[in-house]
User: Fold these one by one.
Assistant:
Number 1:
Amino acid sequence: MQSVIELAGLGVRFGKRDILKDLTVALAGRTIGLLGPNGAGKSTLIQTLMGFCPITAGSARVFGHDVKRETNKVRELVGYMPENDSFIAHQSAVSFVRMMAELSGLPSDAALERAHEVLYYVGLGEARYRQLGTYSLGMKQLAKLAQALVHGPRLLILDEPTNGLDPAARQRMVRLIREIKESGQMHLLLCSHLLRDVEETCEEVLILKQGRIVHYSNLEEERRANKSFVEIETAGNDAGLAEELSGLGCNCTATGTGRFRMLLPEGFELREIYRVAAARDLQLRRLSHRRDTLEDIFLKAIEDGHGGL
Amino acid sequence: MAVYKRTYKTYSGPRTLPWSRFLILTRFSYTRLFQSKFVMFFISACFFYPVGCLAFIYFSHNVQLLALLSLGDAKLPPVDGKFFFTFCKIQSNLAFLLTALVAPGLISPDLANGAMPLYFSRPFSRTEYALGKITPLALLLSLVTWIPGLILYAAQAGLSGWDWTKQNLWMAEAIFLGLITWVTILSLISLALSAWVKWKLAAGALVLAVFVAGAGFGAAINNVLRTHYGGLISLNQVVYTIWGELFRYDWGGQLSLSQAWFVVIFTSAICLWLLAKRIRPFEVVK
């Protein structure tokens, strides 16, 4: 599978300060989450991919195109929604998105048609004729998303798309991102402080800290792997339960009174646990798959600092 | 695809030529500019003097009409270098006011609203952006300066005959070169200032200040230090020196032609540098 983003020893320096250091990764997922604390270099990485920041070491490729040498080609393939307020004053949303489409190379008529379509798609409907200056923050975010989508990019880069949105607007934005993901027509790179947004929408996460990659994981795979990790809670005499379950091939350990954690072998049927419990006349109060949340992954990565690929 | 269908499709149609895309900014700038009635009125007002000059050229060649108006013996001023020098002076001042009115609205709103990343996240370079922003201003200024100037020259040539045209071809060159220099320097200075001052009104005021205060300071330096080098910071004096040479007319300035061209080139270079520093997809915070 072709990599969407490929970084090879990427380094970016502003003045004497290294902002990105030796980033090496190949991302091929449909939706990629970019996480990290403030100042980790997330926005710089995005700006580097857009060709805004000079690369001082290594290389970055988007769909195989070198960001440094084929900047215009990369920009044709990418739609970018910036983090901060970005719009063109004294223009209606239609006029704004149409202009952006034309700057991406669409002929005037096609640009106008697609501006209408895409503004309708993001949910600006009749508001698309209003001046951008009169929009609420949520509407401005949607207009920014529309301009990023209008030229039909293959990769959509969203920098803090839910920033400053109220819960309803956030939900709408996340739903839209999920719809875009499910349409299967483009890849997404989502940079957000809100782990929940990333968890709800992304397949892969890349965590940066102080300009370095501290963790990369495929959330889908991790979720699949986590299915074999089970926690149970019992009531009654559970002496010998851990040994019996271990005898069935589980790696079982007691974590407290009536609490056990086990790693199930491949092909293990959960009903075996119920059978053993029933045979011992043991109440099974809770059985749950233990799953690392993105927050767990994030905090662990940030604490470790130099976790790796 | 119909508008009512709330679906998304990628675009796979034809694309425009990359070199022509700077004209998109020009088109959108004009659309917004011509929405202002005051700008439209001012542009119209800029044509009053050229129309008057055209009428004068026509009258001065119409013997019957002059006789009818009992002006047959009146000594009308000739259409020569001085005539066109005066035309350039008047139109250049109007062009300056037009610049102060139009230019601040070109770049400063983009900077104030953080629009730069939107432009440069597309296959669109900083040079194309600057070109797209300078073109509407330069075309508008051309419309009120050298284009009517050449029309006047053509009218005079048409009415005076081929001999006059051949002998005075240098005037057409002077009109074009002299006013295109003014248009270029006005556009560059106003655009550079517009790029550095995010507030539109302040940018307009600064454009006025640079020209007016420059002339004032220049005069003050000349008077206090009893020199003529103060003229180097007065762009009007600088450009009049160039025009005086081009129109073969002594307007009374003391700067040399080489000094005047040096100031023009130096100022343009500074403006280009300022634009290059400011027109970026993001701001570097130190």
Number 2:
Amino acid sequence: MSTPIVELKSVDKSFHSADGSARLVLQDVDFTLNEGEIVALLGQSGSGKSTMLRIMAGLIPADKGQVLYQGLPIYGAARGISMVFQSFALFPWLTVQKNVELGLEAQGVPIKEREKRAQAAIEMIGLTGFEGALPRELSGGMRQRVGIARALVLKPEVLLMDEAFSALDVLTGERLREDILALWNNNEIPTKAILIVSHNIEEAVMMADRVLVFASDPGRVQAELAITLDHPRSVESQEVRTLIDNVYGLMTTGSARHGRLADVEMKLQLGDRLPEADITRMEGILERLTEEPFNGRADLPKLAEDTELTDKELIEVSRALTILGFVQLAQADVVITKLGIAYVASSKAERQVIFSNQLLEHVPLIAYIRHGLEQDASGDLPEDLFLKLLRFTLNQAEAEHALSIAIEWGRYGDVFEYNFNTGVIHLPKNENHIEEPI
Amino acid sequence: MSQNKQFFPRQVLEAGGNRWDWALLPMVLALLVLLAYGAEQMGRPFQLGETLPLSLDPLNLPYYLLRTTLRMFIALAASMVFSCVFAALTVKYKVAEKILVPLLDILQSIPILGFLSITVTMFIALFPGSLLGVECAAIFAIFTSQAWNMAFSAYQGFRTVPAELVEAAEVFQLSGWQRFWRLELPFTMPGLLWNMMMSMSGGWFFVVASEAISVSNQNIKLPGIGSYIALAIEQSNLHAIGWAIGAMLIGILLYDQLFFRPLVAWADKFRFEESSSETAQQSWMLTWLHRTSWVEAITERVGSLMQMTFVLFRRTYDGTSIRARPNKQSSASERIWDAIIAAAAFYALWLLIHFIHTEVGWGEAGRVLILGLYTLSRVVILIVLAALIWIPIGVWVGMRPNLSSKVQAIAQFMAAFPANLMFPGAVVLIVHFKLNPDIWLSPLMILGTQWYLLFNVIAGASTIPTELRYAAQNLGLSGWLKWRRYLLPAIFPSFVTGAITATGGSWNASIVAEYVTWGHTTLHAHGIGSYIAEMTAIGDFPRIALGIGIMCMFVMGFNHFIWRRLYRMAENRLHF
């Protein structure tokens, strides 16, 4: 019934770090992009969705499996596949016109025809009058318009969008999204399929015919959700709200079903990445949860709106709070636990005690560091030791990131201290108020 | 600009030129005639041993300035091409990167006199019976004082092209040739130009050494401002030195205004920052050129030629073609290359040991090492002294925005000015007061390079965030605490950048500064610089090589163990 344009067949991809250790980013991924559909890829950061997009763009080769475009294997960037970038990737020294012409120029299209086609694309995307401007003179939204025009002028069959709206403010992002949808729905562009990588759940639900949720470590398709609603969709409609709720559920707990409280285990392993959540934000969310109108239970989309956090930020914070036992997740709702309520009601010093207990109990990396420090006669250990440990499962940047989060949390809970200049982690000076974990 | 054009009647514009055209035309024609004349003189017949006519008459100075400038620009163009080819090769081929980058690191710490003494005979043999050979040797010497840091900056630029832009170039099917012109070169341009300006200063500094070739028992003075100075020094003619200083000032001013200023202002559009900056460079020359219609026509012509090459060297197949299939690079070939490099390194080491053992002897090597330590201590002490003087001044100036741009322009100008023109004055003073040359010749080493410290410190101080300034004021920081906690950390990264350039320049300058002649008086300080200078004058190749080799070791060691560490520390910790 539907014709496949791009196919991924049991694709594996690992990245090798400088010391030769490999980390699996994509495992056994099967995916088909069909003619006439918009597909959105969602997933936590580091789940390999950007990698998958780049494999389809021919920018990086797959280690195993097949990547086909129109039935032909892809070894490099294909002419019929174009891309819009997160940070626009415009050439700052070229005018808007020249930027749009870039792909045509590379193909050797004669100058007259090139100008004509670029002009048409510029008009279509609403950039008329800006032809002579340099990208730095434009606002973010206008820059991304140039990025889109540059991709569309090549009349691509497949359009890949790598978080194309995430660098823009919400309103601008929505405008651009609607413009693209209008072009797509009115068949004004010859594009046959669009793939969107996104962090924004609402964006995915509003645009896509299919939403794929990626699981991380290693990246694989965890769930798929078909959306059959007609365009234009309204954010306010009940169907859309339910869908958004469902996707939130998929992303936080891995199931879209209405479930019981805590039907999902959120247990960390020693070498896992830690959710990217700073303490002020965690405490802020907890306090907000106890207040009106939430009174202990909040719908994640509502909470996102209320706190003005992005989906990505909110999901990371709620993961962190769940791991530490301050909240529980049920479908797309967060529910504060008894401990969470107690925490909010406590004084600063009491909070620290609770926090450190939870850290030692639920975050294996922090417990491991603490244990190591206690075993060591001097009470201090270099951070490299723990980085090496994390490098078994994470790449260098991720390992550093995970350790920096562990250090931030550990410092706040007064589990250990850290000296930035020497890179040494050591036990806190005044030991009396730390309680030993059971 | 378009507003300006409205004031002219339409017919004038269509008559093939506007007001700006008529003003620029005679200038350009005159320049062309001058260049042609200069070029013709470069190729005139010449026999080895013949003395070229040279006079200290100030009226000759414009002509000498022309000849020198011509050499400078030829060398600069060569450096530019070299840098681009170097960067393109090293970025494209891993093996090339492994060999060429360390090689360049070594080459740049070799003083230029070293190159001159080795190559001059070769170049003369290349063009028998013509002055062209000697000219080439001089140009090559200037090239060696300009090319290395430009090549490094190009390499750095090519390496740091943002990943997303590289991906975009790939998605939009740019070929290697197209990517070079559309992405890599523009991205590298601002840094490359900045280094080009520094290179030009370096070139001026060694203009005497490269034009008045007195190495390997040669004594050739090519017509040029460098030879003029050399002759003035030989004849102890202080007036002529004065004239030369004047001519040099005018020359530097001209090339700054007519060449670099427009170039820098033009390259402003290649800055990668996404937002437009408020401190855009201005140049009246560029504005003028922009308004001239036939300049526009020429740029268009060049542009369309460029387009033709783009069509010619485009990608003819895309990622679905079988030709795009990657051929499996075996790790074996990489290992073989590594083995070859390692073997070559060992062989070179063996040759070196053999050379020292048979040609110069270990005692000599030890003696030169100690001389190196003398020079090292001079460099260190001078950098510290210069820092003590220029940091407070630089900070004071940098905090005052309207003053800082002016002072910075002056400092840049001073850096371009060849400090060795001041040496005769120093000799006269030292002889007159019977001072110890070991101490009093030293300041000459830093005379030309201290300016890098000054304008980097100014730049650092002027980028201190306003909020931080207010915070410091609000907290009532004062005295030593203010310096230790606020000002010094704030300017540290830019200070290190400046100090790296200043020390590099000082090492190079030591060859000229530790061995100074004025008429029949020759002052010399103990150090590796004077050792090399002496050996070059005699033409003792093994000892020149020894001196250069050991100086190289000092410079590289210093860079590696001190500056690079400080630089990394500055990058990691002391950053806004």
